[in-house]
Write a structure and sequence with these properties.
CATH superfamily: Aldolase class I
Number of strands: 8
Number of helices: 11
Radius of gyration: 22 Å
Distance between the termini: 57 Å
Structural class: alpha/beta
Strand content: 15-25%
CATH class: Alpha Beta
Shape: globular
């Protein structure tokens, strides 16, 4: 197995402008996602300015930007503004607000009016079923199931992702995103079940070259790494009996 055999689309997840522009040069990066948390960590101070700088340079692949209002009217207004920034923009709408109130009706309204939405932070099959129903007759869209966070709870996310794909059959214009992966194995798992997209953070993108790597070779490289690091540190051991 190598990268060329993976059919699941790889999206880069991040909010560092220079990093995103470098990744845009890589043909295997098929799209981009970001969120307010990543933007804050990257030091982004002006949301719209940052987004428009990205969109001026990346015009040929989908990019998701998230609303940050917590009420339906505010989300609607922000979604329409964000959607106006470019034809490759997907607007991330959380599955609920911070009170746990579903945003299903808003998702249906936006999608049916032509807004490309990326419904985010889903973690249950019931949520997927409800959102798929809302997207059934709408514009191209994404459903982001946070498989990595599901795995953080000790649950295997693969059965959930299979259920999600089945539930989304009623929404042919929607694509499933395996969100928040924790290891490179998740790329292989997503591909094996036919997941449409996986978002990959910069640290995991740096490991893509390891796909299908010969394990004997990898073992030897690891042994050499330990040896070289011990040598570079100047470690020595003197027997307790030495010099007696």
């Amino acid at each position: 197995m190598d990268l060329s055999s993976i059919t699941t689309k790889i999206y880069a997840d991040g909010a560092d402008l220079e990093g995103l522009l470098r990744l845009a040069q890589a043909p295997h990066i098929r799209g981009f996602t970001t969120n307010p948390t990543l933007m804050r960590k990257a030091g982004v101070e002006d949301y719209a300015t940052f987004a428009k700088q990205v969109l001026e340079r990346i015009t040929d692949r989908p990019i998701s930007f998230e609303v940050f209002s917590d009420d339906e009217d505010g989300m609607r207004e922000q979604a329409r503004e964000i959607a106006s920034w470019g034809p490759n923009v997907y607007v991330k709408i959380p599955v609920t607000n911070t009170l746990g109130e579903p945003m299903t009706a808003l998702v249906r309204e936006l999608s049916n009016s032509g807004v490309q939405v990326n419904v985010t932070a889903l973690m249950t099959a019931r949520q997927v079923e409800e959102i798929a129903g809302a997207l059934a007759d709408g514009a191209p869209s994404n459903i982001s199931v946070f498989a990595g966070r599901v795995a953080d709870t000790g649950r295997d996310p693969v059965p959930l992702m299979r259920e999600a794909l089945a539930a989304m059959a009623i929404a042919p214009a929607a694509e499933l995103i395996w969100a928040s992966p924790r290891e490179l194995l998740n790329v292989v798992q997503a591909d094996a079940i036919g997941c449409h997209i996986i978002t990959v953070t910069h640290d995991l993108l740096g490991k893509l070259h390891l796909l299908g790597k010969d394990l004997d070779e990898y073992s030897l490289e690891t042994v050499r790494m330990f040896f070289n690091d011990a040598s570079a540190a100047g470690y020595t051991l003197v027997s307790e009996g030495a010099g007696r």
